[in-house]
Amino acid sequence: MTRLLLVSLALLCATPALADPDIAKGEKAFMKCMACHAVGPGAKPKVGPPLNGIVGAKWAQYPGFVYSDDLKAGAAEGKVWDEATLDAYLANPKAVAPGGRMAFFGIKPANERADLIAYLKQFDAAGEKK
């Protein structure tokens, strides 16, 4: 047991920590999302819903937008787009919502996802920066 704990601690210490998220890099990463999503004051639905206030929002929360059954089911279950869920979704949308309609391959680098989430996190539900 002690050996397992020591090996686990060694692996944890050997894993490089992510740098603090960079909002400017997150804004650049958002360019991958702009074809389908908008954020900021006056953001309107495109192929996907606006992402104002998405961090901490309930699933399928934008009024009048037609969401996939997966996202509607998640909303009914009370799921929230917390940072961990957004990170998983941005890495591989089909792993989080297999029946979802988001045709996006995902963002593989963890630091790029963290930057993007930090960028999105600064917008409240009205699209104003907090």
Notes on the structure:
- This protein has 6 helices and no strands.
- It is globular, with a radius of gyration of 17 Å.
- The chain has one domain (19-121): Orthogonal Bundle (Cytochrome Bc1 Complex, Chain D, domain 2), CATH 1.10.760.
- It is an all-alpha fold and 130 residues long.
- Residues 1-16 have low confidence and may be disordered.
Write a brief structural summary.
This protein is mostly helical and 130 residues long. 41% of the residues lie in helices and 0% in strands.
Topology:
Elements: H1 2-14, H2 23-29, H3 69-76, H4 83-91, H5 93-96, H6 110-121
Helix pairs in contact: 2-6, 4-6
CATH topology: Cytochrome Bc1 Complex, Chain D, domain 2
CATH superfamily: Cytochrome c-like domain
The largest sheet, given as strand count, sense and whether it forms a barrel, is: none
Supply the number of helical segments.
6
The 3D shape can be described as globular
Order of helices and strands: HHHHHH
Q: What is the CATH architecture assignment? A: Orthogonal Bundle
Strand count? 0
Backbone structural class: mainly alpha
* Share of helix, binned: 40-55%
Taking all Cα atoms into account, the compactness measure Rg is 17 Å
Oligomer: single chain
